Amino acid sequence: MNEYRASGEAALPTLHGESVNLPRLLLVDDEPRLLASLYELLRDRGFDLTTASSGSEAIAHLSRSRFDLVLLDLRLPDIGGHEIMDFMNERAVDADVIVMSGEVGIDAAIGALKRGAYDYLRKPYSREELMKTVGNALEQRRLASANTRIAQQLENSEKMYRYLVDSSPDIIYTLNHEGRFTFVNDRAYQLLGFSRDELIGKHYSILVHDEDLERARYVFNERRVDERASRNVELRLKCRGARSNSGDRTFNNTLMTISLNSIGMHVPDSEVQKLEFFGTYGVARDITDRKRAEEVISYQAYHDILTDLPNRILFKDRLGLAVIQAKRKLTELAVMFIDLDRFKLVNDTLGHVKGDELLQQVAVRLKDCLRKGDTLARQGGDEFTIVLPELRDRDDARIIADKFLESLHRPFDLDGHEVHISASIGIAIYPGDGESIDELLRHADIAMYQVKALGKNGHSFYHDSMLDVSHQKIALEQALRRALEHNELEMYYQPQIDSTSGRIVGAEALMRWNHPTRGLLSAGEFLPFAEENGLMLPISDWMIGALCRDMLQWNLASGQAVRLSLNLSPQYLDRGDFFEKMRGALVRYGISPAQIEVEITENICIRNPQYAIEQLNKLCQLGVSVAIDDFGTGYSSLSYLHRFPIHTMKIDQSFVKEIHDAEGHYPVILAIISIARGLNLHLVAEGVETETQANYLRSNGCETMQGYLFHRPISLSNFIGVLRLQGPIAGHTAVFPPPRALSA
């Protein structure tokens, strides 16, 4: 800014220590001596000076340049000073004028002032008078410019404030001391459907739900300020229809939940020297979506997402309430435990997606059989539990169990696949079969297993003799432990064939139990029990050693290093010393890690994916490869390709069984083959049973297969015999692509 001393001496303007534009002055006088004297007087005073000796010259300067101040003589030979001022006014020239004239008449001065002259100096004038007048004129000009700038800033600030308020995602409002709206932004119309004109002057209660009026009274009449003011009070507001400028927000009901903050507004009272309350300022935020999300989260915490039934947490809560009521009313209640028969077969053949659809349809049928007040819950997997309160007698539970079995007897339609299942139902009655929640559930579970043992597809009430079933489980566990000690377990091998050459290029290891009384048992008959009872770790330890011993025999006997695929339990992979045990066995028996392939399923990903990735990467660094078993049947199969170090992909037998025509089109098979080819993965088809299936797979790029068409699982001695018959290929060593080790 330009500053001038009180004496009228002009200071050189500066800004942060640097020179800025000097005030520009135009000096107009037709007398050369006076013009020169004026110029000398103002020179070196911090001004940028320009002179004109005639009116036309002055107009020319004013037309092409900007000036802050014009020192103008009225008497000019060509154009008078008044005409020059008229020119400036017509052209809106932004410059102040100080008239300097020798005329003594009042008319000249009045004419100049009427045309907007800042001041009128009569010649001769003193040096001090001139400098003071020039300084004052420039100072007034500076102040006027500053005021204009501040006014513009205030106007812009007000526009910005109004824009921010009206653009706020929240409802912003003010109320007077009576609780009537004095201001509300546009958001109220967008969310509630009430225009500003409809609300101004109206009491806030027209918007508040009747049940929330008492709570609303505290926030809408808030008088406190600072930290004591209301914060985040939730209210429901009435809506008029569904209004939203964005077009993507609707209100399905007539209420909206808000989180409301408010603060009192006060003005000083000069007479009583205290703050006078005159209204409330508030911000109301729409939290309808958040409240709905919280309701969804709360609902999902107590319900099974797949079937929308109560989960085990909610079931135990309701069972607990039912027990309390039964105890108070001296009545009986029933707890049922339902396990679906043959569900695993459906899951294995049609895949998990169809299995989920089946569970959803089962849930609907079971619910249709219940009375009002009964609770059906999903425990997990294919297990359901039911509580039947206020039984008249045990026949009530029997009738409902029969309804369950009858409803499940009807076939299920899974996208054209007709599926038949049944159920095993165990029933425990309070208080005779137990008085606690856990006791009732455990006894119903025991009764259910009794039905399973007797052939499934039925129901049974619990009685004490069924405890023998639990004893049988203990006996089975002891028998499995003895099987490890007495070498009753044995590894069988299903060859994997190169369908072009017919040669065995690999084998999948499958466990068998030579039970002393029941004969040869497949893995599915005892390994699930081993998983449940913590026996997979010692069994897997035995398996690693047995496989290495068998491989050493067939390598020596046949002269062929055929690749071996083995399935690892997720429990075993989670074990900390798994990698060291595998490496130790390979070193001890002299088996090349490249000859080993570990098969993983989605269970490994679900249990502890990060740790599984680390373990599998260590195997890959050792030289062991990794295969996806049953690819395409799980929820997360595709994610394996990115997260896990995969070497081989196995096409599940459920897809292979769909092949009935060698010239047909089976898009899932083609997609899996395409994925494997694109990622340079080895590909194996499981469950190949017909030439049609083999021809279709071969013609589309899958040459390695296993299944009953080629070989059933066979013992070690028979496997060695088959290898000897085919004989080694002279000078040929099997080479497999190295596994891709991924970062964890």
TrEMBL record:
What are the top taxonomic ranks of the organism? Bacteria, Pseudomonadati, Pseudomonadota, Betaproteobacteria, Burkholderiales
Which residue ranges does the record assign to the PAS domain?
157-228
Where does the GGDEF domain lie?
A: 331-464
Positions carrying 4-aspartylphosphate: 73
**Which residue range or ranges hold the Response regulatory domain?**
24-138
What's this protein's name? EAL domain-containing protein
Keywords, ordered alphabetically: Phosphoprotein
Q: Which InterPro entries match?
A: Biofilm_reg_signaling, CheY-like_superfamily, EAL_dom, EAL_sf, GGDEF_dom, Nucleotide_cyclase, PAS, PAS-like_dom_sf
Residues in the signal sequence: none
SMART domains reported in the protein's UniProt record = EAL (SM00052), GGDEF (SM00267), PAS (SM00091), REC (SM00448)
Question: Where is the EAL domain positioned along the sequence?
Answer: 473-727
- Report the NCBIfam families cross-referenced here: GGDEF (TIGR00254), sensory_box (TIGR00229)
Q: Name one GO biological process term.
A: regulation of DNA-templated transcription
